[in-house]
Amino acid sequence: MSINLQSTPRLVADQLKSEIEHGSRTKFLPGQLKLAKELGVSVPSVRAAIRYLVDEGYLEAPKNGQKIRIRSPQGIRKNQASNLLIISPKRDRLSELSLELLVGIEERWREHF
Question: What does the UniProt keyword field contain (predicted)?
Fold first, then answer.
């Protein structure tokens, strides 16, 4: 049996990503302090999770003092596909399963580098 240990920011990012994909969060994230209290984690963990989600295309990069905007599901898919252009120039021929696999590989690669 293997144990899958993930960092708190990664767990927070995965939770928020799931909520975004299922439509629970649609336009903006609440402030970092409010989100940290809501999820029962520290503000630095929320900040790191936001950075993950910006890198993955789920959120727009926040500017000082502005709300953090959630991208539409269509925008998320386009951003992920355009990021994969480096991995596969023939992305238009990829099946949906292949795209998901490559997105997963890209996410793991980002975690390590």
Answer: DNA-binding, Transcription, Transcription regulation
Give domain limits for the chain. 1-71, 72-113
List 69's β-bridge partners, or say none. 28
Select from 60, 42, 41 the least CA-distant residue to 51.
60
Q: What is the pTM of this model?
A: 0.61
> 29 has which bridge partners?
68
Question: Tens of pLDDT along 11-26?
Answer: 999 999 989 888 888 8
Alpha-helix runs per DSSP H in 1-113: 8-21, 32-39, 43-55, 73-83, 96-112
Among candidate residues 58, 43, 69, 64, the one with its CA nearest the CA of residue 13 = 58
Average pLDDT of the chain, as a whole number: 76
Q: Percent of the chain having pLDDT more than 70? A: 65
Q: How far apart are CA 64 and CA 61, in angstroms?
A: 10
